[in-house]
Amino acid sequence: MGDAKLIVKSPAKVNLHLEITGRRDDGYHLLRMINCELDLYDELEIAGQDAGVSLTCDQPGLPVDSGNLIVRAAQALQTETGCDKGASIHLAKKIPVSAGLGGGSSNAAAALKGLCKLWDLDVGENKLAEIGLSLGADIPYFLRGGPALVEGIGEKITPYTIDAKAEIALINPGFPVSTKAVYEAYDLTLTRNSMHTMFQRLISTLDDFSRVLLNDLEPVVSEKHPEISAMKAVLNKHGAIGSLMSGSGPTVFGIFRDADAINGVIADCAMRGWRAFATRLVANAVNDSDHP
């Protein structure tokens, strides 16, 4: 394999909208989401090796075997293509784990794209999305990236237009939330029928965000974790145009006109023992950089 090496960026995302529209007979939930990448990234350094897939990570405690989606994605790609080449992967983490920001799925998508390039595999977009969907519902979205309307169980992806530039504050309380447990709790405490909200596929001003912000899972997580409401209160106190829990939580994000206002959020959260980040929405998918 020589000294070939790739650096692949793996972005976080927020759900500006997460609506549960139904449930299939096999238990999968049908969703209607507006996903958007953030300017917050993990990085995968991928290098060739003779055989097998090895993973290291700079965050202690994160699994580096088949318990990690990166390894499962690499093995699935090998199985589907019959590729017998190997790879060593190092994951540098910045995205909080089990936080509703899609970090694990993003890592898997980045691995699939990077390994296709490293191993010189001609895998079509649809086939790669099929491999991704078999591993996790968010992976097909991350394979495409950018703002997108995501429907079904994650397989139907339509580009979404966001012209407004938004500064984003993220607050993470420091504890993980199980996506599986949140969806199970939602099923047990179903509080409303889907509204099947209709909205124009365009956000041209910051005020337009208020038309789409919705997360059906937020009431379920808030009931168990009052920190969700407390984090939203901090964001609103510092002038957020809107705030919402992302995904299955527990991370909450706020949309701001002015990046300077986020400094107050970060200072406030530091006193409460929460992690806070200043970032922004990314209008287009990130181009990965190659390092020979």
Describe the structure.
- It is built from eight helices and 14 strands.
- The protein is α+β, with helices and mostly antiparallel strands and 292 residues long.
- The strands form three sheets. Strands 1, 2, 3, 4, 5, 6, 10 and 14 form an eight-stranded mixed sheet that branches. Strands 11-12-8-13 form a four-stranded antiparallel sheet, with helices on one face.
- α1 (69-81) packs across α3.
- The chain is globular, with a radius of gyration of 19 Å.
- It starts with a strand and ends with a strand.
Task: Indicate the structural class.
Answer: alpha+beta
H/E series: EEEHEHHHEEEEHEEHHEEHEE
**Helix coverage percent:** 25-40%
Total number of helices: 8
Average per-residue pLDDT, rounded, comes to 91
Shape: globular
Share in β-strands: 25-35%
Backbone CA Rg: 19 Å
Number of strands: 14
Largest sheet: 8 strands, mixed
Give the uncertain stretches in residue-range form: none
Distance between the termini: 12 Å
Summarize this, please?
With 292 residues, this protein is of the alpha+beta class. The protein has helices spanning 69-81, 103-118, 125-135, 139-144, 179-188, 218-224, 227-237, 261-272, and strands at 5-23, 29-49, 53-57, 86-92, 148-152, 156-159, 161-162, 167-172, 202-203, 214-215, 242-245, 252-256, 275-280, 289-290.
Keywords:
single chain; 292 residues; alpha+beta; eight-stranded mixed sheet; four-stranded antiparallel sheet; 8 helices; 29% helix; globular
SSE blueprint and pairings:
Elements lengths: L4 E19 L5 E21 L3 E5 L11 H13 L4 E7 L10 H16 L6 H11 L3 H6 L3 E5 L3 E4 L1 E2 L4 E6 L6 H10 L13 E2 L10 E2 L2 H7 L2 H11 L4 E4 L6 E5 L4 H12 L2 E6 L8 E2 L2
Parallel strand pairs: 1-10, 3-4, 7-9
Antiparallel strand pairs: 1-2, 1-14, 2-4, 2-5, 5-6, 8-12, 8-13, 11-12
Helix pairs in contact: 1-2, 1-3
